[in-house]
Amino acid sequence: MVTAKSQDLMIRSFKGISPTIPASCYVDASAQIIGDVVFGEHASVWMNAVVRGDVHEIRIGAHSNIQDCSVLHGMKEQYGVYVGEYVTVGHNVTLHGCRVEDRCLIGMGSIILNGAVIGAGSIIGAGTLIPEKTIVEPGSLWVGAPGKFRRKLDERDQAAIMRYANNYLGYKESYLTEVRR
Length: 181
Hints:
Layout: E1 10-12, E2 26-27, E3 32-39, E4 44-45, E5 50-60, E6 65-66, E7 71-73, E8 81-83, E9 88-89, E10 94-96, E11 99-100, E12 105-106, E13 111-112, E14 117-118, E15 123-124, E16 129-130, E17 135-136, E18 140-143, E19 148-152, H1 155-179
């Protein structure tokens, strides 16, 4: 278990609450993990990402990855951020006060706002803006700004979601091996 006392990582407590990060996780040394943040087993957070649990809780599910330059933040006393299991959050994504259910792919540069819910097994295309309180039905593809439903996903799409998640589990293991040398 990694705690906010780790000297080589930008992990710190806020108002007496420290992040909880199992040893099976990878957190890049350039990432910022602050406050009320809890990771599931085998999750990863990559270069320059910010996971800021200072105003509300943030939960990142097992086997999920938060890629480079992404920002996760809640809204005080209203919305936390909840990321399910086997979720891939692409580069430069903003998740603000939203819920992303299991086995989703959130494309690079997407923005998902307060109160939005991304249903299990969905894909949010690169650069998509999901407005506040939008409900994305499970197994859907949404694209655009503002995001709009395009189609239901098929088995091939579901396999692609899992391929991305599994790729990052492999990358995580490689990086953990390097760090432990």
